[in-house]
Amino acid sequence: MPLHRFYTAPGVFTAADKKAISERLTKHYTNNGLPAFYVVVIFLEVPDDSILVGGEPSPKFVRVVSQHLARTMPTYEHKQRSVNALEAAFAPYVKERGLDWEIHIEEVPRDTWHLNGIVPPMPGTDAEKEWVKANRALEYQL
Amino acid sequence: MPLHRFYTAPGVFTAADKKAISERLTKHYTNNGLPAFYVVVIFLEVPDDSILVGGEPSPKFVRVVSQHLARTMPTYEHKQRSVNALEAAFAPYVKERGLDWEIHIEEVPRDTWHLNGIVPPMPGTDAEKEWVKANRALEYQL
Amino acid sequence: MPLHRFYTAPGVFTAADKKAISERLTKHYTNNGLPAFYVVVIFLEVPDDSILVGGEPSPKFVRVVSQHLARTMPTYEHKQRSVNALEAAFAPYVKERGLDWEIHIEEVPRDTWHLNGIVPPMPGTDAEKEWVKANRALEYQL
Description:
The structure is a homotrimer.
Chain A: E1 3-8, H1 15-30, E2 40-45, E3 51-53, E4 56-57, E5 61-68, H2 76-90, E6 100-107, E7 113-115, H3 126-134
Parallel strand pairs in A: 1-2, 5-6
Antiparallel strand pairs in A: 1-5, 3-4
Helix pairs in contact in A: 1-2
């Protein structure tokens, strides 16, 4: 469910960075009871001339577009905690390296969301717990 | 209108696969009265290390992000039928090859949507029928 | 805030085109009081076989996905003016070259949006004016 797209210039992150960022993001969600395999991270690299901020090529800028489907964030405080948590997850690879970044999280309704053709179980259900354990989509009784 | 972005590792789909997937998706919408040229499919390939699921590089995973603008899906049943239809369209290239996939459809309001600078005609209007026939955007009387 | 993603085949835009398009888009927003550095433009190029319209590879088609976070467009007229302004900004590089294009603007709630870890100031506030002047995110009293 959470889908995180990172837009950067080439070489901003190494393969090891990408793995670490995605592991740290994944941990945030598994700590909140979600299956690990819900957490998808995609790094999209474009040439230096193809990522521009205020009209200037900006190879030291990281734009993150996150989408949440499995859980809603009912309050402003909840939303701030979530975006802070994501930023903390990638901070060692972004903030602590002096890069600039921008992020927003979109809340997408879950009613058109499928994993391997299956409607993902509702939050906190037994079926969701089975998905956590198996770490993959399983058929279940709706 | 429908915009379908497929995120994959390199080489998951051949050029012929991409054409077939987009043709099959297009047929789903033209069967529902939409102009063929509304159906845009974009394949975004990232290196194996840049698409991660649950913290692991996942070159056999396909993430589809779909957006609908021309039609709304008023009920849950309608939404399920739509996502099922999309999954059926790409099943021969994804499910039947043993790949994992995830999809969601976003409904985007049509009031900021233009094709070649023109506000697309409302569903079922004569103007829309002309667009179907011409298979391109035409000026029309609002 | 405004995030503009341009999906094209390779070579549709030169580096100079990309700079000019992003400068012209930036000017639209700075004319409306926004900080220049809010305007992010990302060009995503995919091979000719990977951008398809109605089932056909379409290397002369430009798909723009825009997102607004800092300002809302309260009326239909406002929305039309905005999308027209964006189209005018890239017209010399798209319409005037005989390319086809499609655009929509998504309005994304600002309550999960951070720049360098900071909640962006509300429209028209003194803090926002400071951001305009500095052209970067600054800590401020909420």
